[in-house]
Design goal:
This protein has 2 domains: about 10-270 and about 435-455, Orthogonal Bundle (2-methylcitrate dehydratase PrpD); about 275-400, 60s Ribosomal Protein L30, Chain: A (2-Layer Sandwich). It contains 21 helices and 6 strands. The chain has helices at about 10-20, 25-45, 50-55, 75-90, 105-120, 120-140, 145-150, 155-170, 175-185, 200-220, 240, 250-255, 280-290, 310, 315-320, 325-330, 330-340, 350-355, 360-365, 410-425, 430-440; strands spanning about 60-65, 75, 295-305, 365-370, 385-390, 395-400. It is globular and about 70 Å long.
Length: about 450
């Protein structure tokens, strides 16, 4: 498990993080960070009145930190938990091909909380967002599929480590403090994927829990608390615990570190559901646009990556008839049915009405899968369907990418439109949403974090 490592991975990462510098960020990377924050903020507003966010408020303490869309202040740990839970709660947040992980919902809440807590300028928030997101995405490359296979949610466990790194950068911790922050975070990481069994809510809290845990780890390290240097590669380390089935590829974590920014390839979701289902929805939409009706279809078979089956396809009978709107987000057959029948799969489509819609259920029941050994998951998210019609004709559609990323980017105008739509969904007037968009866009300015209070409502 050690790969003959001579310098602990945490120390190598600390050397990179301690030298965090705006001059090392390209204009494109800075723009990506702005977009990540914009997307996260809109999702926080969209979910602010959802019952799972209301439940999280009940476990939160008062203070001066902002939970976006809420009128009162919270302690910084609670603010990070609330914002992260809201941002990830509808599974509409950014994703990274190669993980898959969701960096924004973890890193942005942690960065906001520490910047408000310590009255830090916008450049520290930018650095925390960039370096924390980069660390999260790179860590996801070390043992692809193995964390899920072990029963853990990569965003949750990896996110805790990356949030600690982000907060360490914001605070300007020294090398030893950063090493300890990462070491401490390893004992705080958690998040199992048993939510899949009944469509319950625990995945929703994973990003927020990681954000507040990383914040605590970095602050404890600043205070002198020591964590293990070998937290990543040690005999009892992080990857041994969370990904025991695969040898860690630390070269993918460290290759071109500081010169190539993998976050430049982050994807923004066009649909409010599981990442790998999105290209399949596009295929279903394309089939509908060909003039095929639901009644014309006898069956649909999809080629899929083996690593997606246990989360998005099985048990197939359950995926055909998800028990809750949240469970529906992790059913590829159901998401395809929404796209085909309703023509969209946004926040409003995942509802009790939809999961009980006879037309949606009937379409979903026609969808099955076969594992394609050549599927490039998790390096690339692709979609495919083969529809057999009553006429005997077979229609086949493929999409070799996920929209919203480097192959089919979401424009700034589209992302701003998503922000406004999310804010309106969360109960804000369009005028208030537009003002909030301006506030969020300026959070990296010198006094930007001070304007977080303007996002209370």
């Amino acid at each position: 498990m050690t790969q003959n490592i001579t310098t602990p991975i945490a120390e190598t990462l600390a050397d990179w993080l301690v030298d965090a510098d705006l001059a090392k960020l390209s204009p494109g990377t800075i723009e990506m960070c702005r977009r990540i924050v914009l997307d996260v903020a809109g999702l926080c507003i969209a979910a602010r009145k959802e019952v799972y966010v209301e439940a999280t408020l009940g476990a939160s303490g008062p203070g001066d930190a902002t939970a976006i869309g809420h009128a009162r202040g919270f302690d910084p740990f609670s603010a990070a938990l609330i914002n992260g839970t809201a941002a990830h709660g509808e599974d509409y947040d950014d994703t990274f091909e190669g993980g898959p992980v969701h960096s924004g919902a973890v890193i942005v809440p942690a960065a906001m909380a520490i910047c408000e807590m310590e009255n830090l300028p916008g450049e520290r928030m930018l650095l925390a967002t960039a370096y924390g997101s980069e660390l999260l995405c790179r860590l996801s490359l070390v043992t692809p599929k193995a964390i899920h296979k072990a029963g853990f949610h990569p965003t949750a466990v990896i996110g805790t480590m990356a949030a600690a790194g982000a907060v360490a950068v914001a605070l300007g911790l020294n090398r030893q403090q950063i090493v300890s922050a990462l070491g401490i975070a390893g004992s705080m990481a958690s998040g199992i994927i048993e939510y899949l069994a009944e469509g319950t809510w625990t995945k929703r809290m994973h990003a927020g829990w990681a954000a507040q845990s990383g914040l605590r780890a970095a602050l404890m390290a600043r205070g002198g608390f020591l964590g293990p240097r070998t937290v990543f590669e040690g005999t009892h380390g992080f990857f041994h615990a969370f990904a025991p089935s695969r040898k860690p590829a630390f070269d993918l974590l460290l290759a071109d570190l500081g010169t190539r920014w993998v976050i430049d390839d982050i994807v923004f979701k066009p649909y409010a559901c599981g990442t790998m289902t999105q290209p399949f929805i596009d295929c279903a939409l394309a089939l509908a646009k060909q003039g095929v009706s639901a009644d014309d279809i006898v069956s649909i078979t999809c080629d899929v990556g083996e690593g997606t089956v246990h989360r998005l396809w099985e048990p197939l009978a359950v995926k055909h008839r998800p028990q809750t709107p949240y469970a529906a987000k992790f059913s590829t057959p159901f998401c395809m049915a929404l796209g085909f029948i309703k023509g969209k799969a946004g926040l409003g489509e995942f509802s009790e009405e939809s999961i009980n819609d006879p037309a949606v259920r009937a379409f979903a029941a026609k969808v099955s899968y076969i594992v394609n050994p050549a599927d490039p998951y998790p390096d690339q998210f692709i979609g495919h369907l083969r529809a057999t019609l009553k006429s005997g004709e077979v229609r086949e559609l493929r999409q070799g990418y996920m929209r919203g990323g480097i192959h089919a980017p979401m424009s700034l105008e589209e992302l701003e439109g998503k922000f406004v739509d999310n804010a309106i969904y969360g109960g804000w007037a369009a005028a208030d949403a537009d003002v909030a968009r301006g506030v969020v866009t300026g959070l990296f300015d010198a006094n930007g974090p001070k304007r977080l209070r303007d996002l209370r409502h």
